[in-house]
Amino acid sequence: MGLPSKSFRLLPPLRLPYLFPFLLVISLFPLTALILYKVDGVVSQTKTVVGHNLKPTPWHIFPLRTFDEETRQARAYKILQCSYLTCRYRSDSTYRRRRFVKASSGPAEKCPEFFAAIYRDLQPWAESRISKAHLEAAQKYAAFRVVIVGGKLYVDLYYACVQSRAMFTIWAILQLLRRYPGMVPDVDMMFDCMDKPTISRTKHRSMPLPLFRYCTTKNHFDIPFPDWSFWGWPEINIRPWHEEFLDIKEGSQTLSWRKKVPRAYWKGNPDVSSPIRTKLLKCNHSRIWGAQIFRQDWGEAARSGFKQSKLSSQCNHRYKIYAEGYAWSVSLKYILSCGSVALIISPRYEDFFSRGLIPRENFLHIDPLHLCPAIKQAVDWGNEHDNEAEAIGRRGQELMESLSMDRLYDYMFHLISEYSKLQDFKPSPPSTAMEACAESLLCFADEKQRNYLNRSMAFPSQTHPCTIH
Ligand SMILES: *[C@@H]1O[C@H](CO)[C@@H](O)[C@H](O)[C@H]1NC(C)=O
Ligand SMILES: *[C@@H]1O[C@H](CO)[C@@H](O)[C@H](O)[C@H]1NC(C)=O
């Protein structure tokens, strides 16, 4: 502490007032330079949820977001501010404070049937349990790791995720913590944010690896987790689920069943290396195949502000086709929400709620080997059996209505709770992990993302989570 004044005393006393500012700058220069140098180091090494200092996942290359729009200083400021200061100095303490659910809130509701799939998804670890070694081995396939300890969330980022998937997925978990303060157990989870499952049941038979992603198949151990778009997909203007569902439902009611076009409708992107979508283009004939197939031109849609592709205006047909894309597709929930009969071309992928689908009950199955004739047959059957067809459509919509945001948090709550019971160690954040909080994500979000995040914010629940049994 004595050093600076000592060095000042060494300065010539003459004309000190004049020289002082200049000398001060000179004497502080090494310190400033040192700080800038250190800051530069920190900034160039800090990985962020929007992709700073991260490479894309090697198993799915995509163009990285560029940060050209930011100046170097603005970026440095943002990284320091959002990564290091925001969570530490936030005012909100809802995460840690346990709020007991009011006793008067009555018995908890029963969860939808498909919640039972949680036990099937976690079955591979029922005996072996989940060890640190499992997580270390799963890390090779993960884009990020989420560790919750004492209601605080820590993220260890390994790779960038495409668009805002990481931001919205981590946001989803933070909202779960807000909704059930003090109730989410300590947990250590690996996530990948890309479409295709990777933990093959044959290859990993001897040691199943626990990895969360948005879908799975019968041949994979990957554990399905609600996809980011339930909280919003700003890049293509898909709003948070509660808003989108209500709009679609309202839109679907503007036409009675009989007034809807008695044809099967599909609109999407056929160019996603999906053989089934390519095949589907060939069924585009109203009279011969009963189907109307349209190409979604995202470039065009973006230019026109996505008005034509508004999901709620896509419910004017009695039948809506679901065709998987590169893997599972987020469109399934919007298709089912229409109240039209969902014609589902036998899917290879499942997401967490598609296990609630029952053929002839809430959708009709389409055989991909006889694609166009199968569509024609379903459409003809439906048009001859108005009441039954309408009921299938309605039950599909009801399935989606039962999947409110509240139920979505309940699913995550049960999934994470059951998973945590399998851990044979006490989770603690790795040294490379950083705390994430709602404020830090809002801090990194651009204006549009912030708007979507804000609209999907959760509040402490007045009731208990639904019960599975
Ligand atoms: C399907 O047919 C309709 C009507 O003939 C046409 O407008 C539309 O562009 C066709 N879709 C594709 C993907 O070719
Ligand atoms: C978030 O939403 C609230 C009300 O819903 C509004 O008052 C606030 O300005 C919004 N904040 C942002 C950043 O959009």
TrEMBL record:
Coiled-coil annotated spans: none
Keywords for the protein's UniProt record, in alphabetical order: Membrane, Transferase, Transmembrane, Transmembrane helix
Keyword Membrane: yes
Domain of life: Eukaryota
Gene Ontology molecular function: any one: transferase activity
Domain spans labelled Glycosyl transferase CAP10: 183-426
Keyword Plastid recorded: no
Residues passing through the membrane, by range: 18-37
InterPro entries the record matches: CAP10 (IPR006598), O-Glucosyltr/Glycosyltrsf_90 (IPR051091)
Pfam families reported for this sequence: Glyco_transf_90
SMART domains: CAP10
Signal peptide feature range: none
Family to which this protein belongs: Belongs to the glycosyltransferase 90 family.
Name of the molecule in the record: Glycosyl transferase CAP10 domain-containing protein
Species per Swiss-Prot/TrEMBL record: Acacia crassicarpa
